[in-house]
Design a protein that fits this description.
Helix 1 crosses helix 2 and helix 4 packs across helix 5. The longest helix is centred in the first third of the chain and has 20 residues. By secondary structure, the chain is mainly alpha-helical. A two-stranded parallel ribbon has the order 1-2.
């Protein structure tokens, strides 16, 4: 099961950049993901995890219920992200929020890139 708040927020009519609904939905997704994992389901959380503390918290909670946890991190420069987002911004579509270059630059200062030590705490990614 793949859980992506942008798609849900869009279908529910919320502003994709509004923090209140996003925070509540992501909290529900985290709980739902753990419930599904307990039942043996594979869950992909496609959001957040901007900080090491946030990634640690969910990894440890998942370990408490006995499930494997993978972290898929694909690094990209601000320039590359902006090129991709400029194309996406032009194409639009359901569940797509416009993201500006300024937003990407601000977010790049907040995001904590996982280092090799942190990546080693997660299970090796399985090929699908």
């Amino acid at each position: 099961m793949r859980l992506c708040p942008d798609e849900w927020l869009d279908r529910l009519g919320f502003d994709l950049h509004a923090p209140g609904p996003r925070d509540r939905l992501e909290g529900l997704f985290r709980e739902h993901a753990l419930d599904l994992a307990r039942l043996g389901q594979t869950v992909i959380l496609e959001f957040g995890f901007w900080s090491r503390a946030e990634r640690d918290e969910l990894r440890l909670r998942a370990r408490q219920v006995g499930v494997a946890v993978e972290l898929r991190y694909l690094g990209a420069s601000v320039d590359e992200l902006w090129e991709r987002l400029a194309i996406r911004n032009r194409s639009g579509g359901a569940g797509t929020a416009v993201v500006t270059r300024e937003m990407i630059e601000e977010w790049a200062t907040i995001f904590e890139t996982p280092d090799e030590g942190e990546l080693a705490l997660f299970d090796e990614p399985r090929l699908a």
